[in-house]
Design goal:
The complex is a heterodimer of chains A (816) and B (110). Chain A has a domain of 128 residues: Penicillin amidase (Acylase) alpha subunit, N-terminal domain. Chain A is built from 22 helices and 30 strands. In chain A, a hairpin with a 2-residue loop joins strand 9 and strand 10. Helices cover 79% and strands 0% of the residues of chain B. Classes of the chains: A alpha+beta (816), B mainly alpha (110).
């Protein structure tokens, strides 16, 4: 009996330990290993940092050539002082990983289509299907090519290798107690970092910025609506805006455009449920004003890239100092170097220079085995790549992706397409070998305009508008990327993949890209608008170009003199809604006030007295945006056809058509028997939005609908765990200079004054340096960012210069 | 009195082990003290010793920080307040400690 009792008790104890030491999935909800996770000696509690947390004074690392000093300032921004490049990038890798390891790895997993290895397949296989999409778009295929290009470039190669070594040194130092929070929560271990992951991160950025296209949508539109309508709804260039560079008649080079015009395929309808595009409102602002417009007489350069806002933040601020380099700015955790920032003589920033960099080619297979396809009158072998998904808690999943001369075939009857007869291969610029790492390597060391130009020659994709200013007084803009030379209308529609001459045969030479230096207006600026005046000889098309921010920015810059950095901060936070100024009076004039309900009368009143600022407390902004959000789907209901991918015209063109073609057949709402014109649809959207506002106010027991409350912006955790996200109240919106929509917005705001006495930088981003949700520095910059505040950033020449702004200093000592 | 000695012994020995061992070292400590210092409420001694040890240490960490991670983790577990997270944590550690101490004492009886 006693033995029996003992055995029962022993089994209970051991069983309990087993259960609490392992992760369980109950009804698709994963439960972390509770004993391990909740243990205050090693579990998640150890990720909670004390208020006055300081890092170690010294660490011994065996990958160093010499000792390195890292000063962490009061924002926990590291200032790395190394005696050579090898140690510099090793230290950058090590220090970045210390703050951001989990994010770095998760983002590369996401790029490579490996999220389901961590999370499991997810509800309705959400994560697995996401992963399949990433593999089918050839993300790893592109990253491999980028790595191949690296092997010819010693400087860039060493940079990547030492950075990788530094990250791995940190990974090797970890035990369960020191593991970042998310690994504990999800119960897995980091794997070794590789150079491929660095390349994947750049491809990840390329995917955000340059994977957009409308070929399939335009092909369908052509079939359904005809040429005339396609030109009306989707013009290549909208009659609006200041181009980034205006130099009419100044493009004095001869160009060779291939003369054969590859036309759209025999008209056809393509039934594909396309992968969701990256947010079309993703964009950015940058500008530089010359010294004769500023109070100090020195140029000021500004930049705010607009991206999906997450925690941990997308950017990691850092200073890199070694012989030949002294640079300050923001880096992408997982990539060496600084992406946006300044050296001690120049500054630069980036905005997306979108252009059509994607083509779709129709493939004719020999038979149903799809082993061969037609190319230049020959049957060519298809490459079949078997993608393996080690889905957590599930058996291994395999997916076959077909590769052709053009690239992968993402959609087939196994993935988002129900038509097994038609196949389209995906050609994307970012699949090609290129060496952006070296571009940043050189940019981080550039001393003047010539150095900047030389660095950019290495930059292919994703194309960006690089704004520039130097201490010596130059300002410049360069629209840089590897742009295929296009025949007119080429790339707008799906192409015939059986002829290799239908592909990109040449690229615009770097020196013929759009650029300018010290223009007479005294400033350069870009905000994702159409890049150049109409005399530029190359054909340009893209999914869409920005129509509002650019004009507002140029307007304000034109009016300013004696500019102070504070004026620039004010402009970055500017909430003026130019789109509303141009559309609201017209919308209001279309309303029939005799039929107004009480709520509608009230809405009309609010809207007609609104000052067009999307400020936090503005009620007019809420009513206007709700109206617009109801109007678009009502107007373009024709674009939501079952199974056929189509695309709504742009915001600017929609407003233009409403004014100029009120009787356009598209404005008729298909689901109603009566025939609507612009006027009726505007009225219907007004009524619907007013009802929506009333419901919102009731649900939130608010008497008014302040814009920040109604917009309810949200900075989510990368893993989409609701309790780890933060709701914030801000003004702005897409199409506004302060481009903060609900989840997208200025991911980094930077102002740099290039004064002769030394460069001054101010910056802020919505998050913090630490990726640890248990750290004070996880989101310490969020509130200042919300309130439009900036931090003056330390730009040191010696570690000792930091004075009282040092949080702590860590000496990385060479292991003897 | 025996109970108090056993409680204190489990508390200190498991604290010591926890500094360099994985979380389940608490079971080892409780088991040994259950065996060596058998009381008339072995389970309770093990349970409360570990519960108290974990509560106190977690509280120390939490009160010394401006981070609200404990609150957020509570929310991740669908708990309204972090107090509940503390109680669940105490129960998790406590049950292991309790059963381990009980097992130790039962071995002694053999």
């Amino acid at each position: 009996m006693r033995v029996f009792k003992f055995i029962i008790s022993l089994i209970l104890t051991l069983g309990l330990i087993y259960i609490l030491d392992n992760r369980w999935v109950i009804k698709e909800t994963p439960i972390p290993p509770l004993g391990k996770f909740l243990d205050p000696f090693n579990g998640f509690w150890r990720n909670i940092e004390p208020v006055n947390f300081k890092g170690p004074d010294a660490l011994n690392l065996d990958g160093l050539q010499e000792n390195v000093t890292v000063v962490f300032d009061s924002l926990a921004i590291p200032h790395i002082f190394a005696n050579n490049n090898l140690d510099l990038y090793y230290a950058q890798g090590y220090i970045t990983a210390r703050h951001r390891l989990w994010q770095m790895e998760f983002q590369t997993h996401a790029a490579a289509g490996r999220v389901s290895e961590i999370t499991g397949a997810g509800k309705n296989e959400l994560f697995l299907q996401y992963d399949r999409g990433q593999r089918r778009l050839g993300m790893v295929f592109g990253a491999r090519h980028a790595l191949e290009a690296l092997s010819n470039n010693q400087d860039a190669l060493i940079m990547i290798e030492k950075y990788t070594e530094g990250i791995n040194a940190y990974i090797q130092s970890l035990d369960y107690k020191t593991l970042p929070f998310e690994y504990k929560l999800l119960d897995y271990q980091p794997e070794a970092w590789t150079p491929l992951k660095c390349a994947l991160l750049l491809k990840n950025m390329a995917q955000t910025l340059s994977i957009g296209d409308k070929d399939i949508e335009m092909t369908n539109a052509l079939k359904l609506f005809g040429w005339e309508m396609v030109d009306l709804l989707y013009p290549d260039r909208e009659p609006v805006g200041d181009p980034i560079v205006e130099n009419p008649g100044g493009w004095k080079f001869r160009i060779n455009i291939p003369d054969s015009l590859p036309m759209a395929l025999p008209e056809e309808l393509i039934h594909i449920k396309r992968l969701p595009p990256s947010d079309p409102t993703t964009g950015s602002n940058n500008w530089a004003v010359s010294g004769n417009k500023t109070a100090t007489g020195s140029p000021i350069l500004c930049g705010d890239p607009h991206l999906n806002l997450n925690l941990p933040s997308i950017w990691y601020a850092i200073q890199l100092n070694a012989p030949g380099i002294n640079a300050l700015g923001v880096s992408l955790p997982g990539d060496p170097g600084i992406i946006i920032g300044c050296t001690d003589s120049i500054a630069w920033s980036l905005t997306n220079a979108q252009r059509d960099l994607v083509d779709w080619f129709k493939i004719s297979f020999q038979d149903d085995t799809r082993n061969k396809y037609l190319l230049d009158n020959q049957w060519v072998d298809t490459e079949k790549v078997i993608e393996v998904f080690n889905v957590r808690d599930k058996p291994v999943f395999r997916d076959t992706v077909l590769y052709t001369h053009w690239g992968p075939i993402p959609y087939d009857e196994n993935y988002r397409s129900d038509d097994n007869r038609k196949h389209y291969a995906f050609r994307w610029l970012s699949h090609d070998a290129s060496n952006e790492f070296f571009a940043f390597y050189k940019l981080n060391r550039a001393q003047d305009h010539a150095g900047y130009m030389e660095a950019l020659d290495y930059f292919d994709s994703p194309p960006n508008n690089f704004v520039f200013a130097s201490m010596s007084g130059d300002i410049a803009m360069r629209v840089q990327g590897k742009y295929p030379i296009r025949r007119s209308k080429e790339g707008k529609f799906v192409l015939d993949g059986s002829k290799s001459t239908n592909g990109w045969t040449a690229f615009i030479p770097n020196e013929q890209n759009v650029m300018e230096k010290n223009p007479s207006r005294g400033f350069v600026s870009s905000a994702n608008q159409y890049p150049v005046d109409a005399t530029y000889p190359y054909y340009i098309t893209a999914t869409s170009f920005e129509a509002y921010r650019n004009r507002r920015i140029n307007n304000v810059l034109n009016g300013l003199t004696q500019i102070q950095p504070e004026d620039m901060m004010k402009l970055q936070n500017d909430n003026y809604n130019l789109k509303a100024e141009e559309s609201l009076p017209f919308f209001l004039s279309q309303l029939d006030s005799t039929t107004f309900t009480i709520a509608e009368k009230n809405a009309y009143q609010i809207l007609s007295t609104w000052d067009y600022f999307n400020n936090k407390d503005s009620e007019g902004a809420s009513y206007y945006e709700a109206w617009w959000d109801n109007l678009m789907p009502l107007l373009w209901d024709e674009m939501e056809k079952e199974g056929v991918t189509l695309r709504r015209p742009t915001t600017y063109n929609t407003i233009k058509l409403l004014r100029e073609k009120p009787n356009l057949t598209f404005f008729d709402i298909q689901s109603t028997p009566e025939k609507e014109t612009a006027r009726e649809v505007i009225q219907k959207a007004f009524s619907a939005s007013t009802t929506e506002m009333e419901t919102w106010k009731e649900e939130h027991s608010n008497a008014s609908a302040a814009w920040a409350e109604y917009k309810d912006s949200y900075i989510g955790h990368l893993m989409r765990l609701e309790p780890l996200g933060i709701h914030i109240k801000t003004g702005g919106n897409h199409d506004i200079v302060n481009a903060h929509a609900r989840t997208h917005g200025p991911s980094w705001r930077m102002v740099v004054s290039l004064e002769k006495s030394g460069i001054k930088m101010w910056g802020v981003y919505p998050g913090g340096q630490s990726g640890n949700p248990g750290s004070t520095y996880y989101s310490n910059m969020l509130d200042p960012w919300v309130n439009g505040k900036y931090f003056p950033l330390l730009f040191l020449h010696h570690p000792e210069d930091a004075g009282n702004r040092v949080l702590y200093t860590t000496h990385l000592n060479r292991q003897k | 009195m025996k109970f108090v000695i056993q409680f204190v012994a489990i508390l200190f020995s498991s604290h010591l082990l926890a500094l360099f061992m994985p979380w389940y070292c608490i079971a080892f400590a409780a088991f040994v003290m259950g065996y060596l210092l058998k009381s008339n409420a072995n389970f309770l001694a093990g349970f409360f010793a570990i519960a108290a040890l974990w509560m106190f240490n977690a509280w120390l960490i939490d009160s010394d920080s401006s981070s609200d991670l404990a609150e957020r983790v509570a929310n991740l577990f669908a708990l309204k307040h972090k107090t509940l997270l503390f109680l669940i944590m105490a129960a998790v550690g406590g049950l292991v400690g309790g059963f381990a101490a009980l097992t130790g004492s039962l071995l002694r009886k053999l």
